[in-house]
Amino acid sequence: MPVPNELPLVVERRADRVVATLSRPAVRNAIDQRTIDALHDVCAELERDPRTLILTGTDGVFASGADIAQLRERGAADARRGINTRAFQRVRDLPMPVIAAIDGYALGGGAELAYAADIRIGTPRLQIGNPETGLGIIAAAGATWRLREIVGDGRASEMLLTGRILDAATAVEWGLVSSLFEPGDLLAAAHALADRIARNDPLATRHTKTALLAPRAAHPEIDLELQAELFESPEKRRRMTAFLDRRGR
């Protein structure tokens, strides 16, 4: 049994990023109500003070899914509350990029949390997918719309209707994760991505994410409005002047 006072989410804070580690190893990081509450707390912090978020797991597991013991007792009213859905949507909507560093199992709700990230990297022992229909439910925390945007309609349908779990090589081939690293190198690789993000202009990064999340009908107008704001920013002028000065040497 989990230790009553264990932290379901261990949070490390740096000036330009936050690392949130799912930490319920006794139940393979199953996502329970306390984990969801902790995710909301992290999101509230990053909405106030935008930084890159790195999500990762422990002991060779990202998250084995929602906590089945809790899920079994939930009824129609709980489904309509969207307990996991609302938290994962909040992760998706964070102002700065979210990186999911996935080792081992990312199943069910764990997979749906990973789908909410902007960038997903994994290890060769990655196993990711949604077996919900085998448990008599659907993947209702984002997979039915978010997964098809990532891998396409046909592949999303195959995964969700059959409960297929992808191995690491297939996840890369299908574009579900972008790169694979050995388990011992995974977090360092996530930090390397965060380092690259940190070298860029934070406002330009935020506006890029805003444009990426906008519906197709909002383009190109949203891009032009965001660019108009950036064209007037002192940071744009500073960075372009520095670029021209370096080129002129």
From TrEMBL:
Native organism is Microbacterium helvum
- The protein's name in its UniProt record: Enoyl-CoA hydratase/isomerase family protein
Q: Which Pfam families match?
A: ECH_1
What InterPro entries is this protein classified in? ClpP/crotonase-like_dom_sf, Enoyl-CoA_hydra/iso
